[in-house]
Design a protein that fits this description.
Layout lengths: L1 H14 L2 H28 L2 H29 L1 H24 L4 H13 L4 H15 L4 H32 L2 H21 L9 H7 L6 H5 L14 H30 L5 H20 L8 H16 L8 H29 L5 H30 L1 H21 L9 H7 L20
Length: 446
Amino acid sequence: MAGTVNTYRRVIALTGPLLPLLSFLARLPVAMSQFGSVLLVAETTDSLATAGIVGGTLSAGQVVFGPVLGRLADRHGQRPVVVTAAAVNAAATGALVAGALGGLATVPLAAIGAVTGASVPLIGPLARTRSVALAHRAGADEGVVAAVHSLEGTLDEVSFVFGPALVGLAALVAHPAVALGGAAALVAVFGVAFALHPTAAVTAGAGAEERTAPGRGTRAEAGAGAGAGAGRRGRHPRVVYAVRGSLFLQGAMFGACQAGIAALTARLGVPGQAGTVYAAMGVVSAGAGLALGALPARIGLRMRWRAATAAALVLSVPLLSTHTLWPLYAVVTVLGAAYAPHLITAFALTERVVEPARLAESTAFAASSLVAGQAAALAASGRLAEWYGPAGAFAVAVGAAALSLLLALVTPVPAARKHAAARKAFIPAQQTASPKTTGNSPYAGR
């Protein structure tokens, strides 16, 4: 326990205590906007179909344009990209609220939803990218880098528990418009604060690095290090695409579990319990994510990936025979223990093998895969739940878990870190002269 706490202290020493707080608060709007938009449109139009269309276009916008924003952040740095995206997203979210309250038709509401999703400022993927860059710049060991991924994964999980809970509370006490208005305010304030935090300098972008780093030589020479992403873009290793597929399947598990939980609690006459059941799963998942930082480095990413997907399969099978409320709580809560370890391992695998100059784009692709899987499965398993009951939706979750385990078993995973030299070269030259990994980080007090 003491060693784990010390490892996380080293992570906070790298980032400063303010950055994780800012990134967490800036992530909340992502978790709030999807659920909040569906509640708001359903409330104002009295049409679940319209609400589903608007929520679907919001997800589609995020899936399609998330990697584009990641590529822009790799090229031009996080600061200008996040400031611009946060401003657009806040305005689009506000427009969605105004349009829903003003009685806009389905098509314009869906268009605004698409812009809202397309402008989500990718705080989770970019926070990972920034914290990992800080760790590599400081020469941190693999244990600290793993703890960075664990902390970021836990912040994601907690935000996706508290975000919908805040939306539900606001809708209960006041109106769904209050929840989405709050999301707009959060992204405007904390998204911009995250962008302007001094640590953003460590992810100035490949373009800035080419302009400012001394002695970089020709473009061909730069391509051997950080500037590789600016020149010819090579194909990722196969494991990157397998990880994206695995995340798509985990998203499918999320969506199928949501549909199955909603269907079973409705059948039992306690639909209000659905959110609580899902939140319990998220809390356990977040705890498992933090605990992952205690695993020794000798337990490699290949073993972690296989163990997490195997656990997801084994722990999801009991869903098929769950018919009452308290067993549902028990099964879903225990299943949460497999989710965060898989997410954290998937992002860690992505970071280990991709070129440093393409890390933000790659993590954005990974996050978009998760969202795409969730949206697709939610639509399909909702229909299955109508036809075959909750077990129809839960069967989708079990099938997705089985396919994810198959991917983990058949995909070769490199034993060593790729692009190790380029990873250090990618850090802008003026940022490289800093202490190692203890409490002497220039960001420790920020």
